[in-house]
Q: What sequence folds into this?
């Protein structure tokens, strides 16, 4: 947030390298962070707080010491795991034995779609993208719910017809009423048809997913506006 200067050691000249004017500050994206008191012990801001404090005070020696303390603790923890045979299982990263490199499990390398993608955010360490339209996963899940209920409805109707036929004696009129009723064709059921059959609530997961998407959408409206300003 402050001015940055470059000092030329050969001739002693000083040159302005960066000056964040009030106009630059106004154009910055709003920063969303977890409150310090709500962070876990190994989150970066809390873990490196003493190093950061020393850097802000201009105390390079103190910053180096604090950094060494952190790194030494990590080395000791790794040594203890090796000695006890405890396997380290990262939640968010996988190890590539071929290249001996670590890779983020949930990296998203697809091109950004400005017509559909609103904002990208992190939740519980997992990178996610908020889209304008309902996600394909939600649509597929909804279709699966409908298909499963249609299948059960067909099976129930088939069993009903079978009981209706088997319960009637051979000399009985085929017009005898039955406690079961044959449903109408369900080949081309729409969402409204699903409601007609009593499928107003597809399943609990659908409801949770829908509410979750609404919450996310409300949370990223400010980011969406900022992104639109950037595109303009």
A:
């Amino acid at each position: 947030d402050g001015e940055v200067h470059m000092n030329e050691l050969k001739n002693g000249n000083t040159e302005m390298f960066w000056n964040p004017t009030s106009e630059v500050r106004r154009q910055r994206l709003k920063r969303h962070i977890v409150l310090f008191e709500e962070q876990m012990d190994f989150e970066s801001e809390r873990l490196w707080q003493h190093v950061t404090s020393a850097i802000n005070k201009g105390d390079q020696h103190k910053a180096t010491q604090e950094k060494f303390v952190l790194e030494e603790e990590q080395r000791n923890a790794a040594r203890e795991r090796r000695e006890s045979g405890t396997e380290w299982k990262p939640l968010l990263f996988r190890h590539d034995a071929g290249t001996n490199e670590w890779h983020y499990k949930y990296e998203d390398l697809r091109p950004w779609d400005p017509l559909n993608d609103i904002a990208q955010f992190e939740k519980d360490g997992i990178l996610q993208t908020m889209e304008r339209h309902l996600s394909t996963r939600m649509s597929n899940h909804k279709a699966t719910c409908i298909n499963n209920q249609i299948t059960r409805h067909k099976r129930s109707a088939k069993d009903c017809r079978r009981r209706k036929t088997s319960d009637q004696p051979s000399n009985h009129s085929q017009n005898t009423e039955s406690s079961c009723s044959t449903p109408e064709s369900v080949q081309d059921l729409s969402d409204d048809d699903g409601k007609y059959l009593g499928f107003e609530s597809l399943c609990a997961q659908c409801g949770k997913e829908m509410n979750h998407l609404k919450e996310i959408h409300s949370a990223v409206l400010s980011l969406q506006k900022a992104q639109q300003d950037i595109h303009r």
